[in-house]
Design brief:
With 257 residues, this protein is of the alpha+beta class. Helices cover 31% and strands 33% of the residues. It has helices spanning 4-10, 24-34, 84-102, 155-160, 164-168, 174-193, 197-207, and strands spanning 14-21, 41-48, 51-52, 58-59, 66-73, 108-111, 115-118, 121-130, 137-144, 214-219, 222-231, 237-241, 244-248, 252-256. A hairpin with a 6-residue loop joins strand 8 (121-130) and strand 9.
């Protein structure tokens, strides 16, 4: 159970809490689209039953997972729609840094464009979406495996994912994890708003899971194959293809090795 009074004291915006919810992102988009709810908006669920990932992907979340969606005013960071891919990178970086402080013995990495990995498996997924009818509202859906041991997960998930409790056997206070993540997101969002994306990109590069790996990427209807050279100062994923380096600001990683 979340300590709602503690969250309300810490979080400056509107809190929308549910015992059970299909998708925090769906609920957040619905509320934010009305224009009646002040931002920032935090939609939080004790249990999410129909979480969404990118495309048709679903997010598996058993009891003990941390699932929430944060809606922010992108204009406050002078972040135009064209620059929104940077927000996903910054969110991934911030969450990776926050979780690394909770489990420092694990090997922490960020996987472009929107995943956090711990000791070789996915521990967090991030989905950034625009709010219908609003060009300056950005919804950031976040799912983190915290106390939900993956021992009971489907086989494909159990082998590919990680959770904090499985890393070291120590259960966490979900409220504390949430607040740690929100604090780090706020700090990194402030860096982005202040025009320090070059510094953020450098920090991301140090944690980039894909650098040096051979990738197959789908982007804008094109399939590209090449070795990952990392993230450039604009936030693009750079891969060395047969025709030369290519920078991608959006796409889907189909394979890496």
């Amino acid at each position: 159970m979340f300590d709602l009074s503690r969250i309300a004291r810490h979080f400056p915006g509107h809190l929308d809490h549910h015992e059970s919810l299909g998708s925090t992102s769906d609920r957040a988009l619905e509320l934010a689209a009305t224009g009646d709810v002040p931002l920032p908006l935090l939609v939080l669920a004790e249990r999410q039953t129909g979480g969404r990932g990118r495309g048709l992907n679903r997010w598996w979340a058993a009891e003990g997972a941390l699932t929430f969606t944060l809606v922010v005013d992108s204009s406050a960071a002078a972040l135009s729609l064209a620059l929104w891919p940077r927000a996903a990178l910054v969110a991934g970086l911030a969450i990776c840094e926050a979780l690394a402080e909770l489990a420092p013995a694990a090997e922490w990495r960020v996987k472009w464009p929107n995943d956090v990995f711990a000791s070789g498996g996915k521990i967090c997924g991030i989905l950034c979406e625009s709010v219908p009818g609003w060009k300056d509202r950005l919804a950031i859906g976040i799912g983190i495996n915290v106390n939900n041991s993956l021992a009971a997960a489907p086989d494909d998930i159990r082998h590919a994912a990680r959770s904090l409790v499985d890393l070291d056997g120590a259960p966490r206070d979900l409220t504390g994890v949430l607040l740690a993540v929100l604090d780090r997101l706020e700090a990194r969002w402030a860096d982005l708003a202040a025009g320090r994306f070059g510094e953020l990109a450098a920090a991301y590069r140090r944690l980039c899971l894909l650098t040096g790996r051979m990738l197959t990427v789908e982007s804008a209807g094109e399939t590209l194959v090449g070795r990952c050279l990392g993230i450039d100062d604009a936030g693009a994923l750079v891969i060395a293809t047969e025709s030369g380096p290519r920078g991608l600001v959006a796409g889907t990683i189909r394979s890496w090795e």
